[in-house]
Amino acid sequence: MNKAIQFLKEAYYELKKSTWLSRTEALGSTRAVILIVAIISIYVASVDFVLSIIFGSILGR
What we know:
Elements: H1 2-17, H2 23-59
């Protein structure tokens, strides 16, 4: 039990030393990630669509 309490104390101490993003920085990073994921998703969907048409025509479907 003492080890668990010691671990929690040390974890709390380490979290206090961390620097956290501000709200605007976190929102900006979130927007950037969402935008990049959307762009990559559109690209992958487009490549999949084109390849399915190409292979469909080759295989006669």
